[in-house]
Write a structure and sequence with these properties.
Blueprint (H helix, E strand, L loop, with lengths): L2 H7 L8 E3 L15 H14 L6 E3 L5 H5 L7 E4 L5 E5 L4 H19 L19 H11 L1 H17 L16
Helix pairs in contact: 5-6
Length: 176
């Protein structure tokens, strides 16, 4: 998934890391972490099973890093050399990340050519491919409990109706 992208952008000065935080869908086979040794063992198993070639950093048992950066299970960040967050996505989507990295390379080139640029904050809605079969297989690896927990969560989400996004605003109906 991101391994080819990590290799492609490494010569441009980008380093890709994987931060192992917690089991997103704990089950009988891979439950909540009770010890750091267990968490490290799960991270090693995950690295092998998912064929992750990037360095994996393992968060502490409390999840200090995970909480600080949003506490969602599959977030993606681009952090600049000075430690500033340049990109944050609530979900990993390689095409979205690639578009942002290409944008950063364009900015780098424009600055190299002498253009004065000032950063600003922006938000936009991304879209990603959903592979329900692959997701289901991941839940099965964790165990039946993970499958049941996710099914109950989906029922709860469905019963709550549409959830507003952070950037959605209520607009008055159009005038005729």
């Amino acid at each position: 998934m991101l391994e080819p992208m990590a290799r492609e952008y490494e010569p441009e000065g980008f380093a890709f890391l994987f931060v192992y935080t917690r089991e997103a869908h704990p089950g009988e086979h891979y439950g909540p972490h009770r010890t750091m040794e267990q968490k490290l063992a799960h991270a090693r198993t995950f690295k092998e099973r998912a064929q992750v070639q990037r360095p994996i950093l393992v968060d502490d048992l409390v999840g200090t890093g995970h909480i600080r950066y949003g506490a969602l299970p599959n977030m993606r960040y681009v952090i600049g050399r000075g430690g500033r967050v340049l990109f944050r996505s609530d979900w990993t989507d390689p095409p979205t990340l690639a578009a942002f990295l290409k944008y950063l390379l364009e900015i780098r080139e424009r600055r190299r050519l002498g253009e004065r640029l000032v950063g600003f904050y922006a938000e936009w809605m991304g879209y990603r491919t959903v592979d329900a079969e692959k997701f289901q297989q991941g839940l099965e690896v964790a165990g039946p409990q993970a499958l049941g927990d996710f099914a109950r969560t989906m029922q709860r989400w469905t019963s709550q109706g549409k959830i507003k996004s952070r950037i959605e605003v209520d607009l008055p109906p159009p005038q005729e």
